[in-house]
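> call design_seq(struct)
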């Protein structure tokens, strides 16, 4: 994934994706296959995300709006409260965060495949 794409999702994801890869226990051919497969999956995921981003953002906005519900407005007259733009920004952030999580799962799967198995390490415990 390109640095621009990673930083567009979130700065935290960009720094995590720039981390050095773990040592590989597999052959160079296998590592090349895994890398090619990871790149293909990431490019499909990014294209799918860009295609459906607005739909997902609008759906998430509806969820946030329903959860926020009707509320009293305690702001003085003349002071603006742009509730819609605030909720749309929050919805967009949540959608981008989900995409970052998806891409992190792809990266974790590639690392696990290079290590020679489908083992996953959580909280220091191998599963």
């Amino acid at each position: 994934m390109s640095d621009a794409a990673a930083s567009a999702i979130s700065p935290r994801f960009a720094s995590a994706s720039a981390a050095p890869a773990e040592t590989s226990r597999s052959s160079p051919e296998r590592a090349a296959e895994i890398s090619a497969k990871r790149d293909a999956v990431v490019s499909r995921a990014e294209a799918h995300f860009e295609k459906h981003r607005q739909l997902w953002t609008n759906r998430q906005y509806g969820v946030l709006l329903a959860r926020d519900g009707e509320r009293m407005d305690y702001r003085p007259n003349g002071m603006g409260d742009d509730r819609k733009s605030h909720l749309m920004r929050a919805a967009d952030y949540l959608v981008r965060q989900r995409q970052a999580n998806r891409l992190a799962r792809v990266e974790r799967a590639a690392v696990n495949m290079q290590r020679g198995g489908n083992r996953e390490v959580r909280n220091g415990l191998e599963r």
